[in-house]
Specification:
This protein has 88 residues and is mainly beta. It is 0% helix and 50% strand.
Length: 88
């Protein structure tokens, strides 16, 4: 498992991307607007957004926002760089 702190100022956003492993985004201050292509929403302080592996998503802040991203590793798998591109 890996935990990463995130700080976004008003107007900042994280470009659309996807992760190979599950991620929990826990907002500790402010709020984030998210878009996964199928739905949009808002996550405020004290709330959590679960992101499934392979799910394209983006988020942005309208106000100063702090959050933690918790990357849940797979049991029995050593830490390594993940790539979702199909091998040719």
């Amino acid at each position: 498992m890996r935990v990463v702190g995130l700080q976004l100022e008003p107007g900042q956003h994280v470009p659309q991307h996807r992760n190979a492993i599950p991620v929990a985004l826990i907002v500790t201050e402010g709020r984030l607007h998210f878009d996964d292509g199928a739905k949009t929403g808002e996550v405020g302080a004290g709330e959590m957004l679960l992101i499934n592996p392979g799910e394209r998503h983006t988020y942005r802040a309208d106000i100063s926002t702090s959050a933690y991203l918790v990357f849940a590793g797979l049991p029995g798998v050593r830490s390594r760089t993940w790539n979702l591109r199909r091998k040719e």
